[in-house]
Amino acid sequence: MCSRRALLLLVIVVALPLMSRATGYFNFNARARGIYETILTLRLNEAGQQLARLKQDEPDNLIVYHLENYIDFFTVYISEDEQAYRHLLNNRDRRLDLVAAGDESSPYYLFVQAEIRLHWALLRLRFEEYLPAFTDINRAHKLLLRNQELFPSFIANQKDLGILHAAVGTVPDNFRWALGLLSSLEGTIEQGKREIEAVLDYASRHDFPYALETRVLYTFLLLHLDGRPEAAWTALEAAGLRAETSPLHAFVLANVAMRTGHNDLALQWLEGRPRNPAFFAFPYLEYMHGLVKLRRLDTSARSHFRAFLNRTRGRHFIKEAYQKLAWAELLDGNLSGYHQHMQSVLQLGRSSAGGDKNALREAQQGEPPQADLLRARLLFDGGYYDRAAQLLQSLSRDGFASFDHQLEYLYRCGRVYHGQHDYERALRFYEQTITLGRDYPAFFACNAALQAGLIEEHRGRVSAARRYFNTCLEIDPDEYATGLHQQAKAGLTRLED
């Protein structure tokens, strides 16, 4: 009997360590946070080595799978390498299973599962796998809602919920079918903004690990969904990003700068970004670098577009890059060089994304842009409104023989005066553009209506803004329709809020 008891005691003593390791825990400790911060600088190899040591020292800390997933997300999203995507996709289910076996009493238990699903949903959207992407979004939202019920003071939930609630009301028409899958998801831009602002308020008073990430998400929400570029720029300035420390920081800073009329700052940040092999390769930054130069009418932009084309492993922006090379030739008066690069637009790359579609359409039409109107467009896009205005004032609508160029001239005038905050004059040109171009395949009338709506919204004229946003939705151009309609819907949603 004593020997049996001794044997049973020995079994229990041996099994106890194994039993204690059966349920993993979640500890986002200082060491894990340091790895997370390394990931956000895109020093992904270094972060992977740090994670391997953390897994060895803390084998039951399931937060490592959260961090591993961040590495996979940035690896695939930035590189657009489809082979890497297919290979790393195997990690998704394995990590979900490991996390699901963890400590259910932790607020990170459901949150990490939701984050893994959201990351892979974004990657699946990148590779046009829409059904599994929207399914993941729906399941992630349900996990976050459940976690919010269980742990209402766990503020990290609202980081993700805020973005989901803000985005759902602006789903483009070509993805409306997906709303049936998002059965758990509803919300408005204003609701999402309030949730993100609550997170930022918390982060201003507490040590919050996702503070920087949330500031960036808030900036993009203001810029892309709330239609407030000046507020987005203010939020960006408060985010604490430093281009010289991280290619990812440089991307965010330059991306917002390029969309808010701060082209020279975008150039400064892109030129100051780190380029050594310790950082994960980010070929798209070369494309951006070329674009900010082209918007200054600096045709040395060619070298950056070529660098992007030589380095990218992705499927997007290839046609656009060749189009921009063609534009550089056109600005230099080399028409044969323009047509040569547009042949590459026809033959290389894919046309699933909006910008690539538009490049392909231009190549198929076989007609180059009018050089002065192209200069005005580029200067406007760079925020050089005075230079663009001077150029347009030296031209006249009657000076263009084709209707296409006459319509574009009216549209460009409206955009430039809008940029100069001369709203009355901008609206006059927008009205002419809408009247003449609403049945025309180009995007000018559609965007003129959208921009007129934004002016009236800014001035507090709700009924006029609503009329213009609805006009935008009524016009169906051959180019940019999805993005323009999405912005018009976002505008209508803001007016309702």
What keywords describe this structure?
497 residues; mainly alpha; Serine Threonine Protein Phosphatase 5, Tetratricopeptide repeat; globular
CATH architecture of the domain at 26-154: Alpha Horseshoe
Oligomer: single chain
Looking at CATH, which topology of the domain at 26-154 would you report?
Serine Threonine Protein Phosphatase 5, Tetratricopeptide repeat
**Which parts are unreliable, with pLDDT below 50 for 5 consecutive residues or more?**
1-21
Count of helix runs: 25
From the spread of the alpha carbons, the general shape counts as globular
Strand coverage percent: under 5%
Overall pLDDT: 92
Number of strands: 0
Q: Helix and strand succession? A: HHHHHHHHHHHHHHHHHHHHHHHHH
Distance between the termini: 76 Å
**CATH C-level category of the domain at 26-154:** Mainly Alpha
Structural summary, described in words:
The structure is a single chain. The N and C termini lie far apart (76 Å). Among the domains are: 26-154, Serine Threonine Protein Phosphatase 5, Tetratricopeptide repeat (Alpha Horseshoe), CATH 1.25.40; 393-497, Tetratricopeptide repeat domain (Serine Threonine Protein Phosphatase 5, Tetratricopeptide repeat, Alpha Horseshoe). The chain has helices at residues 2-20, 30-40, 44-57, 63-79, 82-100, 108-126, 130-150, 156-168, 189-205, 211-225, 229-237, 247-259, 263-271, 284-294, 302-311, 318-331, 335-347, 354-365, 371-381, 385-393, 403-419, 423-437, 444-458, 462-474, 481-496. Mean pLDDT is 92; it is low at 1-21. It contains 25 helices and no strands. It has 497 residues and is mainly alpha-helical. The protein is globular, with a radius of gyration of 26 Å.
